[in-house]
Amino acid sequence: MLLKRSRPKIGWKYWFKPWQQVDWLLFLLTIGVSMFGGLMILSTELTQPVADWWWHWTVAGIGVVIALFLARTRYENLIQWHWVTYAITNVSLIAVMIIGTSAKGAQRWITIGGFNVQPSEFAKVGIIITLAAVLHKRTASTLESVFRALAITAIPWALVFLQPDLATSLVFGAIVLGMLYWANANPGWLILMISPIISAILFSISWPLSEPIVLFNTISFGFLGLVWVGAMGILGWQTLPWRRFGLGGIGASALNLLGGELGVFAWNHILKDYQKDRLTVFLKPGYDILGVGYHQHQSRIAIGAGEVWGWGLFKGPMTQLNFVPEQHTDFIFSAVGEEFGFVGCLVVLFIFCLICFRLLRIAQTAKDNFGSLLAIGVLSMIVFQLTVNVGMTVGLAPVAGIPLPWMSYGRSAMLTNFIALGLVESVANFRQRQKYY
After folding, report:
1. Cβ-contact 204, 226 below 8 angstroms
2. Which of 124, 187, 136, 35 is nearest to 384 (CA)?
3. How many Å apart are CA 238 and CA 48, to the nearest integer?
4. Beta-bridge partner residues of 221
5. From CA 40, how far away is CA 53, in angstroms rounded?
6. Whole-angstrom distance, CA of residue 119 vs CA of residue 411
7. 107, containing H or E segment
8. Is residue 352 within 8 Å of residue 417, measured between CB atoms?
9. 214, β-bridge pairs
10. Who wins on pLDDT, 184 or 291?
11. CB-based burial, 414-428: b 16+ in 10 Å, e otherwise
12. Which residues are CB-contacts of 231 (< 8 A; sequence separation ≥ 6)?
């Protein structure tokens, strides 16, 4: 008598097994934010003959598929391909300068199949992968490793800056600082890295004196700048390895003096008046509200008009009458403030905080340094973009043209965010089994 072979039952768990360790809460939060972003884009363009909201959801759907594919692919394989990734990143940025499409005074896009692709967005992921692989092999506990990471970042950063795309170049800086800190770099070194920029700002501020201090009729600096240079000198003496004869402190002070003087020179002789106004208008509410301050002024009015609970979806007068320029991209948060009020803004920010917490949790529980650094690089990118975007819509930061992740309209930005999410989910999927709480 022949025995019948029983076939194993294939249940729903079988199909989800490749994603067994994936952080589904993180996935659902980002998908929810993307869906809500499309709804807000629809609200901002309800009276216009465009369908950006539909493209927003379509690209988000493609991004989810890519993220799911990446989540079941072992991220460790990227280590042996990180220099190829770096080369592709730089070649794409060079191609923009040669065959790129210009718009609004910048050359940032390549037209492929009728669609404009922005390589500088994908370059964020490229630099995260490259730095994670480099710092995985050798941590940032030595200055040699720090300088190596900075040198690697310098090429794509310069190519992006020359497009010009100042906003994305700032994101690069945030990614590098976050990953260096996580890779055990001395926090004092990171402060010294950004200190010349702070010097450039403080040297132009004479407060609390009425006039800046002038030396030799050519060198001038504010009192706060002088204090800052002294503080950086002490920090350099304490943290840099060249403590003999105070060389570390002298070098740090000289670097900040140079940065401060270059900042003063650029402010007085290079930057045009409209460029100065764009950088400082957020410090002067009500200034030139029909010119350079128009965007932020209208955005603040829209958010303030929402009060506590908002006007309701599709009912915000500022949103529906298109008073806020670029509301479907950079200023999408102002639509949230007007139509859903203070409570709606808090809910959106709370969800972003949960996303950041899950990214941090994955970085902490990754099985190796490479995966941990990938998660931190993505976290640094998201946190910086979130902070600057929300800050500029409420008048706490200059208008930098940085989109709100998963909410602002932008096909390249959306795909970049989901590719980054897929890499982080791969780190979660292939770690040791953890019990979440």
Report:
1. no
2. 124
3. 59
4. 213
5. 8
6. 11
7. strand 106-112
8. no
9. 220
10. 184
11. bbbbbbbbbbbbbbb
12. none
Query: 170 near 384, Cβ under 8 Å?
Result: yes
For residue 3, the model assigns a pLDDT of: 46
- Which pLDDT does position 217 carry in this prediction? 60
Question: Cβ contacts of residue 334 below 8 Å, gap of 6+?
Answer: 298, 299, 302, 303, 318, 319, 324, 327, 393
Pure H helices in 138-209: 143-161, 166-182, 187-202
Q: Is 288 left (phi over 0), alpha (psi -120 to 50) or beta?
A: left
Q: Please check whether residue 111 is in contact with residue 118, taking contact to mean a CB–CB distance below 8 angstroms.
A: no
Q: Do residues 23 and 425 touch, judged by C-beta distance below 8 A?
A: yes
Q: What is the DSSP letter of 76?
A: G
Residue of 310 and 5 predicted with greater confidence: 310
Tokens in use for 161? Answer: 């800056």
Token pair, residue 47, equals 């009276």
Are residues 325 and 302 in contact, defined by beta-carbon separation less than 8 angstroms? no
pLDDT, tens only, 339-372: 999 999 999 999 999 999 999 999 999 999 999 9
